[in-house]
Amino acid sequence: MKDQQAMIPLDQYHEYPPDTMRQRAAGFLADMQRRRSVRDFSDRPVPRDVIENCIRAAGTAPSGANKQPWFFVAVSDPAVKRQIREAAEAEEREFYARRAPQDWLDDLQHLGTDWQKPFLETAPTLIVIFAQRYGLLPDGRKTKHYYVPESVGITTGMLITAVHHAGLVSLTHTPSPMDFLTRILKRPDNERPFLILVVGYPAEGVQVPDIGKKPLDEIATFI
């Protein structure tokens, strides 16, 4: 019989009175309603410790069997960002010209996107998130990972939230395919690129599409 995992008291949990919970939930909602994806970034550098703490916050996400099947590569080197941009634009050019179905192109039209991705060079930091299909022990043996897409999706959402909470803006970017990221960033075979999160300050005078989010009754029901 396997030994049970050591248990410790939940001594960092804080319960709040209902009125305080309401205030905190409403305040958090108001803060997150200000979050917008942007495509025009300033080149102002972001302090590294801010990025580090955002990644640490993302790393607190729950995961299948606590395997934490993610890895983050924070890129600020201009030469590496240029390589990523060139490779991404090559894939995006092919996507927009040949691979994308027309309905997808129609849905993107109001956002004003195309194959050109200058933000991959202009933004001070790219955080590339990799999903680990399986783990590797120091002796080279493989360990199984569970619910990898779900776990990595959760940590990505928490990273986006942490970046916004810190006072920065971000953009999710998923060129397809993304294998070039494995090559450029020299990641091992057990990892697959999941998403590029472009992070920084918004460019001066930046504009965003006039879009909204679905109301509560269109995204939830209470039983």
Number of helical stretches of at least 4 residues: 8
Task: State the share of residues found in helices, binned by percent.
Answer: 25-40%
The SS-based structural class is alpha+beta
- Strand order, biggest sheet? 1-2-6-5
CATH fold type of the domain at 65-202: NADH Oxidase
In the CATH classification, which architecture of the domain at 65-202 applies? 3-Layer(aba) Sandwich
List keywords for this structure.
single chain, 223 residues, alpha+beta, NADH Oxidase, 4-stranded antiparallel sheet, two-stranded antiparallel sheet, 8 helices, 16% strand, globular
Quick structural gist:
This protein is an alpha+beta fold and 223 residues long. It has helices spanning 18-33, 48-58, 78-99, 102-109, 119-122, 148-165, 179-184, 216-219, and strands at residues 70-75, 125-132, 134-136, 142-144, 169-173, 191-200.
Care to describe what's here?
With 223 residues, the protein is an alpha+beta fold. The chain has a domain at 65-202: 3-Layer(aba) Sandwich (NADH Oxidase), CATH 3.40.109.10. It contains 8 helices and 6 strands; from the N terminus they run ααβαααβββαβαβα. The protein has helices spanning 18-33, 48-58, 78-99, 102-109, 119-122, 148-165, 179-184, 216-219; strands at residues 70-75, 125-132, 134-136, 142-144, 169-173, 191-200. The strands form 2 sheets. Strands 1-2-6-5 form a 4-stranded antiparallel β-sheet. Strands 3-4 form a two-stranded antiparallel sheet. A hairpin with a 5-residue loop joins strand 3 and strand 4 (142-144). Helix 2 (48-58) packs antiparallel against helix 6. The longest helix is centred in the middle third of the chain and has 22 residues, at 78-99. The radius of gyration is 20 Å and the shape is globular.
